[in-house]
Amino acid sequence: MHRSRELARRVVARGAAQVSLTWLATLIVLAILAPVLPIDPLAQDLLAELEGPSAAHWFGTDELGRDILARVIYGARTSLMTAAGAVTIAGAVGVPIGLMAGFFGGWRDAVLMRLVDVLLALPGILLAMAIIAVIGRSQAAALLAVGITGIPSFARITRAQVLSLRKRDFVVAVEALGGSAAYMMFRTVLPNSWSPILVQVVVLSSVAILLEAALAFLGIGIPPPTPSWGEMLRTGKTFLYEAPTYAVLPGLVLTLTILSLDLLGRAMASVLEDRHEIEEPVALQGGRP
Q: Is the dihedral of CA 34, 38, 42, 45 positive or negative?
C-alpha cells in the first residue's frame, strides 16, 4: 500500500500528468453528473439547426437543432463506459492467460500464446467489425468487440512480467516452503506484477475510446440517437462548411481525451522505469524486492 501511494505521488508530481488528470477528472465528473444537468442531448429544435456557438448553445447545434455540448457530454458517458467495459473484459481474460502461460511454461505456454498470436494477427478494427456484424449494432456489441481486441496486450504484458519474477528469490523461497501453484500465482507473483498492468489499463483505455469512435465514424458502432463522439464526427463532416464547429469541437474533445490518457500512461511508465533503476541494485544485493 505504501508503494502504491508513493508511485501515485510521483506520477501526480509530473506536470503533464497533472494536466491530464485535471482534464480526465473534469470529463468523468461531467459524464457522471450528466443526468442531473439541465441538458437534453435528444431535444430537437428544427428552427435552430446548424447554429454556431452562442450563449444558449455553447458548442452550437446539429442538423436537428440538438445541443452539441449536451451530446458531447453524453458522448463522454458512452466513450468512458465503453472503455471501462472493454478494459474489464480484456483484463479479466488476458491477465489469467498471461499469468498461466508465464508461470507454467511448456506446452501450456505454447498453446495459450498461439491463441493470443491469432488474435494479435487480426487488425483490431477488422476484428471489431466482424464481431459487430455477427451480433449486431449496440453498445454491448461495441464494448465486447473493443474488449476482445485488447486481450493480447494484457496477456503478453502479464506473461513477460511473470517470466521476470518467476525465478526471483522471494518466489523461489515461497516455493521451497511448500507454497502451492495457486498461492504462488495469485498471492506472490500477481501482486508484484500489477504496476505494468495498470499502465496497460490506461493505454488500452485510450485505444478503446479511439476504436469506439472509429467504429461509430464508419457507421457500425453504437446506433443513433445514442450520442457518440465518432457518430458526431461522421455526421459533422457533411456540414463542415455550414457549421465547422459541429465536427471540430467534438473532435477536439476526443483528441484531448486520448492525448491525456497517453500522457498519463507515459508518466506512469516513466515512474516505473525510474523505480526499477533504483530498486534493482537492492535486489541484487539480496534486499527485499
A: negative
Residue 14: name the closest of 277, 276, 282, 273 by CA. Answer: 273
Provide the CB-side half-sphere exposure for 83 (13 A, CA): 25
- pLDDT for res 23: 93
Coil, strand or helix: which one is 266? helix
Q: Structure pTM?
A: 0.84
The CB-side HSE value for 177 (13 A sphere, CA atoms) comes to: 10
Q: What are phi and psi of 67, to 5 degrees?
A: -70, 120
Helix 194-217 × helix 68-104 angle, to 10°: 140
C-alpha R_g of the chain: 22
What does the alpha-carbon distance between residue 286 and residue 150 come to, in Å, rounded to a whole number? 37
Place of cell 509530473: 14
Bond preceding residue 123 cis, omega within 30 of 0: no
Please tell me whether the peptide bond between 225 and the residue prior to it is cis, using omega within 30 degrees of 0. Answer: yes
| Grid coordinates of 242 | 455550414
Residue 159 CA to residue 95 CA, distance in Å, equals: 8
Per-residue model confidence as pLDDT tens digits over 43-69:
888 888 888 888 888 999 998 889 999
For the beta carbon of residue 88, count every other beta carbon within 10 angstroms. Answer: 14
Rounded Cα gap, residues 22 and 228, in angstroms:
22
Q: Which residue in 151, 160, 159 sits closest to 92, CA to CA? A: 151
Which three cell numbers, joined as nine digits, stand for 178? 511448500
Helical segments of the chain, H only: 2-12, 15-33, 68-104, 106-121, 124-135, 139-149, 151-166, 169-176, 181-183, 194-217, 229-236, 245-284
Note whether 264 and 203 are within 8 A (CB).
no
